[in-house]
Amino acid sequence: MAAVSLRDxxxxxxxxxxxxxxxxxxxxxxxxxxxxGPSGCGKSTLLRMVAGLETITAGEIAIGDRVVNNLEPKDxxxxxxxxxxxxxxxxxxxxxxxxxxxxRGLAKEDISVRVKKAADILELGKYLERRPRELSGGQRQRVxxxxxxxxxxxxxxxxxxxxxxxxxxRVQMRAELQALHRRLGTTSxxxxxxxxxxxxxxxxxxxxxxxxxxxxxxxxEVYAKPAxxxxxxxxxxxxxxxxxxxxKLLGIRPEHLEPCAESAAMLTVDVDLIEPLGADILVYGxxxxxxxxxxxxxxxxxxxxxxxxxxGRLALRYERSHEHWYDPQSGKRIEP
Amino acid sequence: MVENxxxxxxxxxxxxxxxxxxxxxxxYVTFVASTLSLKEIMQVPMPLLPGSHxxxxxxxxxxxxxxxxxxxxxSHMLVNSTVMALAIPLGKIAISIIASFAIVYFRFRxxxxxxxxxxxxxxxxxxxxxxPTLQVITDLKMNNTYAGLTIPLIASATAxxxxxxxxxxxxxxxxxxxxxxxxxxxxxxxxxLMPLSKxxxxxxxxxxxxxxxxxxxxxxxxxxDESMYTTVIGIKRMIVGxxxxxxxxxxxxxxxxxxxxxALVVVLMQKWFVKGLVETEK
Lengths: 336, 282
Hints:
The complex is a heterodimer. By secondary structure, chain A is α+β, with helices and mostly antiparallel strands. Helix content of chain A is 25%, strand content 31%. Chain A has 8 helices and 18 strands. Chain A has a 6-stranded mixed beta sheet with strand order 6-7-8-3-9-10, with helices on both faces. A 5-stranded antiparallel beta sheet of chain A has the order 13-17-14-15-16, with no helix packed on it. The radius of gyration of chain B is 24 Å and the shape is globular.
């Protein structure tokens, strides 16, 4: 196991087309890091640069105390799990896991011991002789993980490994991944666009947008104090409301709004959409200042299930401590 | 579409049966002719039931050819044909799979230029370039050699193109996974790409075996020596002068011998052939 450091890592394909604009981060030994961002933000590219599948234009990546910029993937002591699993279709599950070890010239007995051990951890023992196409999606996913585990690498790299699974299986595999990390304690980098995966799996996360790291921090810290308007509107569902106030942006999460009497209203909303979810009710509408119009900010509120939601004016209040303030130009957080 | 109209079924069966007869009847006549004696075959009309000279005719052509036309033994021609029909597909597969591997998996200067050069030769079949090719082979003194017979037919854009298309459908992640696993490019080629291409290779082999076996024009020019005749050329050499002067029973026996191996290859490799054309194991 090893620490990973990214030092002002940049990637550009041509002089004009830069996709990673300098990302720096120190990942501690054994940490589980999630790289979160919308599609096209460069999160996979960043991971592939750590893996050695993409060249690094500028900056430095170190695994342990070795700078790996010019090392082939096989020499970086990493293992990668791909989104579509990338299992060798013509090989059995056993051979899929053993292939990398054979190339490294391990003895047959050692390979067998390692594969059996990984198969036990992942409950694949019964399927070792099968071909990938004879397995279900979840089992294939496990084989892909098994292939990474048997290598006993310094770092695990996961490139959206759960996004090809159905919703139920995804939750299950998420739990298994967590258990696996607890058991092996290997430094892991996990790329996803799913904020729930990020919140539940990460010890720390990097929120990326357009090739920049917008915020790096523990999930709850990122939720509680989004560093930019992008992070504020990317984390949370529905996203944080951003309302213009006195030349600044007021950020307030839908779950922090509560209905109140007209006289105590800190915010009134002209409700035009109601989504009852069972556990609670989501209401949406334009901010309805007296004389407000459709161009005013859109506001969402999460109300308790017993709230009486109906279209029309709704008075809302919130705790001052839940306010967030942003600079509308730079999008940066303003600490009060 | 499922329809239940008896007259339509009857009609389609009639058409199909006619089709089968049109294809099968000449083959049947060939077979019957190969079992008759020369005297029987010259009767008008020719008998349509097999005669009693089957073994005699086949022994004659296999060991000594005809008496009036070429006297080269067909057994040796079958060997020549087999060498040619095996060397062409095997050579083609070996060369084009490597060429496609380079074109699909490596970024080198003029990559697309080379690909299009290969592609353009698709438009130049052997017949078009036959005179310059013959000149080259003659200058290299490769007439009447197996090399001269096969090498000009091995260069192939079709196979390169086919393998390229197949390789492009192989997910990139597979190559990347192999890279992370520590496989060198050639190791990836051997351990992953080759096994995945098995069915494509089988389909190509069947097509090219038949192509090689049935070659007529090229061996006619290059194989002028009796010892280098292929079976197809052998048939041509047995036909001399007027209709009546030919030993049609022996020629037909040779024709049967020339037809069997391709049919055999198709029958034996049918499963693989179809697999290669319709499905990929990915």
